[in-house]
Amino acid sequence: MRRSRPPITVDSAQADVRERWPAGRPLTGAQERLLAAACADVSTDAAALIDSATDWWPLALRWARRGEVPARPGAVVRPVSIDEVCAVLRVCAEQRIAVTAAGGRSGVCGGAVPLRGGIALEMGGLDGITGVDDVSLLVDALAGTRGADLEATLRHEHRLTLGHWPQSIDLSSVGGWLGCRAAGQYSTRYGKIEDIVAGLEVVLADGAVVRTGSIAGAGPRSATGPDLTQLFVGSEGTLGVVTRARLRAHPLPPVERRAAWEFDTFGNGIDAIRRALRRGATPAAVRLYDAEEARRNFNHDGVLFIALDEGDEAVVDAAMRVLAEECAGAAALSSDPVDHWFQTRKDVSALGRVVEMGVVVDTIEISASWAQLPGLYAHAVLGLRALEGTVAASAHLSHAYLDGACLYFTFAGLGSDPADDVWAEAYYHGAWDVVMRATLDHHGSISHHHGVGLVRSPYVSRALGEGFDVLRRVKAALDPNAILNPGKLGFE
Ligand SMILES: Cc1cc2nc3c(=O)[nH]c(=O)nc-3n(C[C@H](O)[C@H](O)[C@H](O)COP(=O)(O)OP(=O)(O)OC[C@H]3O[C@@H](n4cnc5c(N)ncnc54)[C@H](O)[C@@H]3O)c2cc1C
Hints:
Elements: E1 18-19, H1 29-38, E2 42-43, H2 46-51, H3 58-65, E3 68-69, E4 75-77, H4 82-95, E5 99-102, E6 119-122, E7 129-133, E8 138-142, H5 147-158, E9 160-161, H6 174-180, H7 187-190, H8 193-196, E10 197-203, E11 209-213, H9 228-232, E12 241-248, E13 250-251, E14 255-263, H10 266-278, E15 285-289, H11 291-298, E16 303-311, H12 313-326, E17 331-333, H13 336-344, H14 349-356, E18 360-369, H15 373-385, E19 390-400, E20 404-413, H16 421-441, H17 457-464, H18 467-478
Parallel strand pairs: 1-3, 4-6, 5-6
Antiparallel strand pairs: 2-4, 7-8, 8-12, 9-13, 10-11, 10-12, 14-16, 14-17, 15-16, 15-19, 18-20, 19-20
Helix pairs in contact: 1-4, 10-12, 15-16
């Protein structure tokens, strides 16, 4: 798999690369030999270790400017088969070596950072489609398959699509999507990855293999006990390593429709989308930008709503008609803003430039019920604006469902001295705290699709309540020596 590099990286040729969290005990020579016997591609090359020390977490981009990486692994292990994954995990279980799985390293929360050293298990070698059932619309893909490659093969060779279009489709992999409960930008029609997945093949901490759902031979909507597939979805590599997934596909959509409206308030826009979904319309993409984001991203004055649907003509036309009826009180616009969004939707070139200027910037996606969304939005944005140094605090509604939606906040802050890292980190964590607390106070979910990683870990216990204790017991049962992605998902 091609490596995706964040916009700011540490020069791996640099002799004095520092670690934010030094990993402690390095691997012994004997452990390296055991790993090499388990997997043909094991590297302890300094450049490979630095490359595997981070992901796209924006705080780590700031650290990279001063030659610092979050945490270096002791070795980078690149399996190309499930047998190699099993053999590596058996060695790691016996030797108590930490294992941090990584796909495209496009995670934005530090999830793939090898916090406790050990090995970085780079999954890109398990790549490709291994089966297509066009009758049942099921596709098997290996975990390291890059999203864009998977979608291109499905489209061109099978006339199918997953309909899963995360903005990071060029950077991310099937295993990473499942790890983080990813969402494509068309999730209102096609669902998130947890709706798309029908079964998994997972290697557990002791090297045993478990197959779940449709891969284990179950039919759809099985009532044979709890759904073990969903146990691993969102587990961020802490309960097992995903090697293969069975995914639900769709025929290529024959038609596409676009529309846009301007609302007088963000709240009125939220309410129109809610009413449309309540009537059963599920247009693929519905995106409502508050006035600040509409100005920044579209050079448009006013609250902007863009919608796009694709699929069977009769279904799409009905969905867009319902949407238009519910937007009757808003000003209809040309489809120009939708076209602009579509053309620029993967462009994140500004991120590196802004971080280089010393601006502290990040995005935070959360979800909440319709009843809570307007209050949560106001609470979080006002809280961010009240922080000293804030230069931008805004949000858009990015994914919508029958019961609620995802709000995607952006914040940016600048201190009096852009090079002051102490101020920058205090501001960064303060901004996160504002949005996390506002979300919890409004009974929302602290993540909708980026997952927990490092940055949300302190909030997981409050978010899950007594459920967190159950999750801890599951973790202890499946990974008794806590070797799988230690330090993540709030487990420490
Ligand atoms: C520009 C940009 C845009 C983005 N847009 C979106 C978006 O629209 N929607 C969205 O959902 N996300 C988005 N993201 C976030 C990121 O792309 C997703 O979280 C993605 O799912 C991560 O996939 P990855 O392969 O890069 O995983 P990684 O970053 O490598 O890993 C993510 C987590 O999954 C675990 N993991 C990886 N592979 C496996 C495996 N085989 N088995 C078990 N655990 C594993 C890792 O340990 C880690 O905890 C965006 C990121 C960027 C940089």
